[in-house]
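Predict fold of Tripartite ATP-independent transporter solute receptor, DctP family; 336 aa.
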Amino acid sequence: MKKITRQATTGLLLLASIWLSGCQPQQEHVTLRLAHTLDQEHVVHKAMVLMGERLQHYSDGSMQVEIYSGGQLGNERELIELLQIGSLAMTKVSASSVESFVPQMRVFSVPYIFNDNAHLWRVLESPTGQQLLTDLEPARLRGLGYYDAGSRSFYSTNTEINSPADLRGKKFRVLASQTAVKMVEALGGAATPVDWGELYTALQQGVVDGAENNPPSFYLSRHYELSKYYTLDEHTAVPDVMIVSLAVWQGLTSQQQQWLQQAADDSVVYQREAWAEASEQALAAVKAAGVKVIYPDKQPFRDAVKPFHQSLQQTEIGPVLQQIAALAEKSEAAND
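Predicted 3D structure, encoded as tokens:
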């Protein structure tokens, strides 16, 4: 009931201001409201600020983006639902958060399918990656592009994680993704979905023993204050997805759509370049704060999830997994 009330209230407050200003192209000025759950110091937030600046530039000031950060308007699922009914123009969410709306997106929560960051981006920029964005449209969403979210790794409040054996009997927060849950279970841990905004308290109170995320999120969330062990097993590379309400998109003129897409493309380029530096700075900061950063042998982790990989081959994402593997093989051949 709490969720329904908050979403309904948000919808009533925003419906007039967003629908009228964001979906009627004959108006002189269009304001697109964008909401997300991250801190304003996060490089992804900064990329969205740049997107707004570029949109104003391309449109000669006739279009602007108004950003609500830090989960002000809800968690990622709630934000997606607001887009579906046209009460919010845009959001940035993890690809894992989209999988309950678009099952094909769960491919990104499968562990150890990318060899490195370059392999990930070959996939995202390929017809395979672009098709996954197109697959959003039946859910009344439109994908504008991907943001780099690095690799996710485990952190713990009470134990070093050097191998899958160290996960046994431990409760780890995961994204709201059944694939992420099964991944942790395949490694021997107990998966517990917790909203991002509630995770600090969950770690503090021992509701979970740890979580998993990329270095910038680990640092900016201040989870390093409670979790003094960070194991760079880099099990998944789950990109963020910038999405716009299909109703809002269709309410724009073709010229406005072009401006918005170009602004989003510019933000993707900026964010991708800034991500590596942000990750290095975050790792240095948590080390300085007393966190023990562990560089484990990844092979035992890879071996532990092989049965999970095999179980997915005959599902709807089986062909996508094969396409991802083929892109890795092409890269390796090119480097020979």
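The first helix runs from residue 2 to 22.
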